[in-house]
Amino acid sequence: MKLLVTGATGKLGRKVVETLLQTVPASQLAVSVRNPDKAEDLRARGIDVRHGDFDVPETLDKAFAGIDRLLIISADGDNETRIRQHTNAVEAAARAKVGFIAYTSLGNAAESKLFLAPPHQAAEQAILKTGIPYSFLRNNWYLENEIPSVQGVLAGAPWVTSAESGKVGWALQQEYAEAAAAVLAGEGHENTVYELSGKLLTQAELVTALGDVLGKEVPLQQVDDEQYADIMKQAGVPEFALPIVVGIQQGIREGQLEIESQDFEKLLGRPLTPIAKALDQIVSGLN
User: Fold this and answer.
1) Cα dihedral sign for 197, 200, 206, 209?
2) Given a cut of 90, is residue 42 above it in pLDDT?
3) CA 223, CA 221: separation in Å to the nearest integer?
4) What is the 3-state secondary structure of 240-277?
5) Domain named NmrA-like: which ranges (predicted)?
6) Residue 278 in 3-state DSSP?
7) By the 8 A CB rule, do 73 and 136 touch?
8) Smallest Cα–Cα separation from 174: which of 59, 69, 273, 38?
9) Is 150 helix (H, G, I), strand (E, B) or coil?
10) Are strands 100-106 and 201-202 parallel, antiparallel or unpaired?
């Protein structure tokens, strides 16, 4: 049984590989990476490092050859780029006759109106079209996505949001990685959809938990989208990224990440890390 993880030099991919190594022999693991030089440490540990570029389909044909179970980690970039890359990866998996595809998707992807949803919808549809057994890992939101806001608070700034009372199912990236590893290496996950969402919290509830961790009250500044964009611009967010950060706030405000589910706990076989403890880990990593 040969397992392969794409994007294994990225933050999530690395964590998935490290988690797999706790239970799977290195000889059964392969990784597909755009730049194999960045994965030399994995090769040294006995992992089969393969060159696979989502923009060069013929590299994926070689990368996916002989693979039984594949984890496609969603790529970065604009929607058009991601749709093309994800489609290339899925079509290569079909040509390689991979036996199972797990894919890191987005919460409630099929119905989501979040501007990030189209690449995930396209990937899920492409996978379904292949007829290959699959599992969609619909990740809600990494707590690590809030690191810039936490850093701002540590520097004395308020927590700024235009998400109003919209709720998010935050969890640590490590826990998303553990869930992905459990599905890739486990049994009984064929043709499944897992909504991986932590305990639903508003921005205010998250900020209260952060204040408890820091031992001080953290001011919360609720603004509209235009003000949010201005503040983010002043904070150094590049112009091209402003519609992205505003769009995320808007999606949260509209309830796009308000997804209640126990799937996370089922896959991990334990409760998720409580938000205060998770935030403490984030803050400790910044100090």
Assistant:
1) negative
2) yes
3) 6
4) HHHHHHHHHHHHHHCCCCCCCCCHHHHHHCCCCCCHHH
5) 2-232
6) helix
7) no
8) 273
9) helix
10) unpaired
